[in-house]
Request: fold
Amino acid sequence: MISLVIIFSACSPSKGDAPGHEYMPDMFHSTAYEANTVNYYRYNTWGSKEDYMKYAMPRKPVAGTIARGAAGMGRSDAGDMAQHFQSMPVSGSVPYYYEDTEEERTRAMEEITTNPYPITADGLVDGKNLYEIFCGICHGPAGGGLGYLVRDDGGVYPAAPANMLLPEFVAASEGRFYHAIMYGKNVMGGYGDKLGYEERWNVIHYIRSLQAQDQKLSYDENENTLNSVGVPYGTLAHDDHDMPGSADHGGDDHDESDHSHDEEHSHDHDESHH
Reply:
């Protein structure tokens, strides 16, 4: 009789949230704590249900953790060109270690002083398109704070957008612009979730080009007379060793140059010998 009771109870059907009796449940219910998963089972989970919930809840990663694909592509023998690209992540996402506070804004302004991307024609075109979509409606097509929302024919805006052509903004560090894009400022909302890493920097490059245009200066892939921060791509392109695919560029010229150098060196050596 006891054997029959055990057999029938072991075959009890599932009902509602109850899965019924399980054969060897420890093969289905993990004894390990799994992040973001609540799989408490009283027979093979160490600790109480409250302990399990504590360890299963989402937590911040260990300090210094780098997400997959977020590491730069630098190398130890990097030249000028590679140094500008070494902070570019494969995934296009870079952790931002500054909080949305005025203290952290100040720290970002002091510490973020360079644009990791060189000035390129394509980057300026991309920055222009993004600026016109996300920024121009307030800051204006020229960056002077006279966008459509503050027009003279009835536009109403609670606070005047920043005039980025003022000396204050021309002299501002890249961190001031980047932090504002990430979190916003005053009534301006943040765009960190709308613009990717490279897109943010392209917008900043374009803003710099507007400042240069206002002062009749240059800020493009060949020349930057606005500041010493933006690096024109053209000033780096002369170093073929650092350019992507440099092995395929000017192969014949390179061989000819090496050959002429060898001949010159040999000629000098012969003259010295004589």
Observations:
- Confidence is low (pLDDT under 50) at residues 74-84, 239-274.
- The first helix runs from residue 2 to 10.
- Residues 21-54 form one domain.
- The radius of gyration is 31 Å.
